[in-house]
Amino acid sequence: MALEWVVLGYTSGAEAIMLLLLTVPGLDGLRKGLITVTRNLLKPFMSVFPFCLFLLMDIYWKYETRPSCDAESCTPSEYLRHQKSIMKSQRNALLIAAALILYWLLFSVTSLLVKIEQLNQQLEKLKNRD
């Protein structure tokens, strides 16, 4: 299962980098190309949603089938393993949430930038008519 988490981590990283490049001021010359690239990548990145759902179900299944371990009923090594498993599940849930939020932000920022670009083109047309 580690490969799925690596893929999700790289996807989240790519989303974060694209979001950063789209929102950094001073990259006006590159912004049009970045918007085009991002719009083309949004559809393949849509596969993040079912992938995250699958990974969330995996976390839930591991949580439900995990043996309970209290401090009194198990050895210290078993208790430590139990705690590490809980920490990994929480970390993975945060990664899922980050991937989904970053996709939503990337989609929103890209659509806003496309609307701004369209409005600028309309403004130029109006200026040229006068």
Automatic annotation (TrEMBL):
Segments passing through the bilayer: 6-24, 45-63, 93-114
Q: Does the keyword Transmembrane helix apply?
A: yes
**Signal sequence, start to end:** none
Tree of life domain: Eukaryota
Where in this chain does the entry annotate a coiled-coil region? none
Q: Name one GO biological process term.
A: protein localization to endoplasmic reticulum exit site
Topology relative to the lipid bilayer, per the entry, is: Multi-pass membrane protein
Keywords attached to this entry: Endoplasmic reticulum, ER-Golgi transport, Membrane, Protein transport, Transmembrane, Transmembrane helix, Transport
Q: Which InterPro entries match?
A: BAP29/BAP31
Subcellular location, record wording: Endoplasmic reticulum membrane
GO CC field: endoplasmic reticulum membrane
**Is Transmembrane helix among the key words of this record?**
yes
Q: What functional role does this protein have?
A: May play a role in anterograde transport of membrane proteins from the endoplasmic reticulum to the Golgi.
The family line of this record is: Belongs to the BCAP29/BCAP31 family.
Identify this protein by name: Endoplasmic reticulum transmembrane protein
User: Which species is listed as the source?
Assistant: Hibiscus syriacus
